[in-house]
Amino acid sequence: MSLSDVLILCSVLSGLAAATGPLSFNPGQEYVFSYSGRLLTGIPELSESHYSGLGVRAQVVLTVRGNGEYGITIQDAKYTKINGELKPSSGAQGNQGQESTSSTGPNWRNLELPNYSDLPASAAQSLRKPTVFKMNSGNGEFESMTVDQNEPTWSLNFKKGIVVLFQTKGLGNTESSVDSNMASDLPEVSL
Fold first, then answer.
1. CA distance 57 to 79
2. Separation in Å, CA 127 to CA 6, 39, 109, 130
3. Which of 154, 133, 151 minimizes the C-alpha distance to 143?
4. Cα pseudo-dihedral 125, 130, 135, 141, rounded to 10
């Protein structure tokens, strides 16, 4: 699995708190969100603390253009590669009602990841390219995405994963993270 595949999976699997309706931001304003995602895999029967995967942190800058149109850029992206023993963070507590440990080991949300590094310059430049998307202001459903034809597919897919976090279609009033099936609602980007 390539770094770009892992970045895509991290972005789709990470969740924001569920929204109760369409996006409600002020036109002309810019909002900055801290994004953190991780993709870890391991086999508890072989080792409770050995994992492989990737962690990603970045700032997502959302610019509200109006009429359901938004722009995003990904800034200050950092990553960490994981292939080894991970221990729970000191003072780890359950996250979102999750137990901090279970019969198969610590909760993956509470594992301390190694130090993060800056993305390679070309990857960071691709993520910083502005991307415009449109949401239906009535129901919060994704409608379209305008992309730079020269942007790498992995970068577009990463951004699609971020955009789906803002989609509020079908989330209702229940506390939930983003349904991974919602990502399938986004059209496939091909160059």
1. 6
2. 15, 19, 25, 8
3. 133
4. -10
* Chain-centre distance for alpha carbon 4: 13
The structural domains of the chain, with segments of one domain joined by +, span: 3-91+102-171
Q: Provide the token pair at 41.
A: 């895999």
Query: Phi-psi bin for 56: left (phi > 0), alpha (psi -120 to 50), beta?
Result: beta
Contact status, residue 69 vs residue 81, Cβ threshold 8 Å: no
Q: How far apart are CA 51 and CA 42, in angstroms?
A: 5
* pLDDT, tens digit (0-9, with 9 covering 90-100), for 25-51: 889 999 999 999 998 898 878 888 889
C-alpha to C-alpha distances, 51 to 11, 20, 24, 41, 169, nearest whole angstrom: 19, 35, 39, 5, 34
The full length of the chain comes to: 191
Distance (Å, whole) CA 26 – CA 86: 42
Between CA 98 and CA 101 the distance in angstroms is 9
Pick the more confident residue, 111 or 177. Answer: 111
CATH architecture of the domain with residue range 3-91+102-171:
Roll (2.30)
Residue 141: how many CB atoms within 10 A of its CB?
17
Helix H segments across 47-149?
121-128
Three-class secondary structure of residue 110 per DSSP: helix
